[in-house]
Write a structure and sequence with these properties.
By secondary structure, the protein is an all-alpha fold. Helix content is 71%, strand content 1%.
């Protein structure tokens, strides 16, 4: 056995041993590694459940942002089209399903939650079409003026992401013991990392558009167009970099982005208070001030990114050799 371990440690000969023998030899030399091997299936199941509940949390925050933002914006539009009630109802159901998912510690999917998330995704996709039509039908079509003051694209996109991350949560938590989570036949970590990256960039574009409309009159308005893009780039780098430093930096940036989303809601509350009459005139200033529910979308996307990184790390640990102790 000593010769076997020495041969495994030699840099020129590890390929001569089958992976199973190499793992057993290292396990004999390192008891903690043996413990990791024995608990690998259960640990894989536990990690998938934790990541699934994180994705439920991300879906909950996005659904809450859509619910409150749509309530304000569609009320301002006097609900002229009866379809404008749909996102309120669907986002409410998605929020309730997400809260139930967070509380559910059973490592299996829930059929009703999956259906609700699917409806949320379809509703968000339809909302994108409605809002795009609202922009294009105005005089001037696709112009800066219409992008500034017509129906915002970001709200239905957030509902689409809420439904998508919720469906992914149900798929991930239903992973059998000893298996890696997969979505549409591909590794879940990679799929969700790409989805969080795209979602962050889209939200940054919306924040840049609205803050440009506000002429960046407060220096803090530069934060949503600098920190989240950095987090998105670091997150996308984890798709190609295998070192721990890339994942560590991405986690730090995502946690800062999550905090920024909550702080942004506070900044918007302050922005509403600066309008004439302040909160004493709340019924008008909430409609005309900066949207309070918008910034927490960064928080939801950051949490989804953190869950994706956990799955990505799990996939690489399983695909490679035993971790170094």
């Amino acid at each position: 056995m000593r010769q076997l371990v020495q041969s495994l440690d030699a840099p020129s000969r590890p390929a001569e041993f089958p992976p199973v023998l190499a793992g057993l030899a290292e396990a004999v030399a390192r008891p903690r590694a043996l413990q990791h091997v024995r608990k690998a299936p259960a640990r894989s199941k536990d990690l998938a459940l934790v990541a699934g509940r994180q994705l439920n949390g991300a879906a909950a925050i996005l659904a809450l942002a859509v619910l409150t933002d749509s309530a304000v914006e569609h009320y301002r539009g006097s609900f002229q089209n009866k379809v404008m009630y749909a996102p309120l109802a669907v986002s409410s159901l998605a929020l309730l399903a997400s809260i139930a998912g967070i509380a559910d510690r059973q490592p299996k999917r829930h059929r009703a939650r999956g259906i609700i998330y699917g409806v949320a995704g379809v509703t968000g996709l339809a909302g994108l079409g409605f809002h795009a039509y609202n922009i294009l039908k105005r005089p001037g079509g696709l112009s800066w003026l219409n992008l500034f003051y017509s129906a915002p694209i970001g709200a239905p996109a957030a509902l689409l992401l809420s439904g998508g991350f919720g469906r992914a949560a149900e798929k991930v938590r239903d992973t059998p013991s000893g298996k890696l989570p997969r979505i549409i036949g591909l590794p879940a970590g990679k799929i969700l990392t790409a989805a969080a990256f795209i979602g962050l960039l889209g939200t940054v574009c919306e924040a840049a558009l609205l803050h440009f409309r506000g002429a960046f009159q407060n220096r803090a308005m530069y934060l949503p167009v600098t920190i989240p893009p950095t987090a998105a780039i670091l997150l996308s780098r984890c798709l190609f970099a295998t070192g721990r430093s890339a994942s560590h930096l991405a986690r730090i940036a995502l946690k800062i982005t999550a905090a920024l989303g909550l702080a942004g809601a506070g900044f918007h509350v302050y922005g509403v208070s600066r309008n004439m009459g302040g909160w004493r005139n709340w019924s008008q200033n909430i409609l005309n001030g900066p949207p309070i529910p918008a910034p927490p979308s960064f928080t939801g996307l950051a949490i989804a990114g953190l869950a994706a990184l956990s799955l990505l790390d799990m996939e690489r640990n399983r695909e490679g050799s035993l971790p170094r102790i």
